[in-house]
Amino acid sequence: MVLCEVCRYVTDDFVVLYSIMGMCSVFLVIVLMAAPTFYYLYMKATYETWRWKTIKTYPPAEIVAMEIIQSTVGALVTVVMPVAAIWLSQRGLAMGYCGLGRYGWWYDVWQLVLIVVVSDWWQWFYHYVGHCFASTWKKHAYHHKFYNVSPFAVTADGAVDSFFHGVPLLLFPVVMHTNLDIMFFTYVILFVAYGTYLHSGHGTVFLFFGGARRCLAGEMISARGL
After folding, report:
1. Is the pTM of this model over 0.90?
2. Which of 46, 54, 120, 185 has the fewest C-beta atoms lying within 10 Å of its C-beta?
3. Domain-wise residue ranges, the chain
4. pLDDT-based confidence at residue 6 (cuts at 50, 70, 90)
């Protein structure tokens, strides 16, 4: 699998591994996910796409540029955790591994379900804490200043938020035998691909309220004077 090849044949140096995965993370978030979505929904916008926009105006270019910069920073902070998971696993200090079926196919399925459920709860929990307490709101509010979001806002978080985004990526292999490819692929789908949709500034027939919640959050931020 990809991660095992990187670990085995490329490097086991933390800084080099971080550099490689950091570049891959930024490329994934900005180039592969956000940029095509932005191109289709914003640069090639039509009435049919605009009618699903949750805020009926488009953000100015300087705000989009800020989103790109902050999402790049956010991705580089978050990726510290999976790098640490790989590095520790290489040294036998964590239980991350690659290759399907090592502990039986049932274990692969079981850990996939567990990773999805626990990770989704974790994202909800720290996001809830970020909104409900004044001290944590000061850190989390940075993300919500992009109230009229574009897809480039998907990881446009402050350093603290970005850090907590990635915590499960280290905790899973520390506490249990974890297939790193399954874990990372799950995060790419759930929190990068789906996150890009949630931050696209658009809704759909069946997921409209995802965009509507972001619109409401933006109005709440404006009311607080941020």
Report:
1. no
2. 46
3. 2-223
4. low
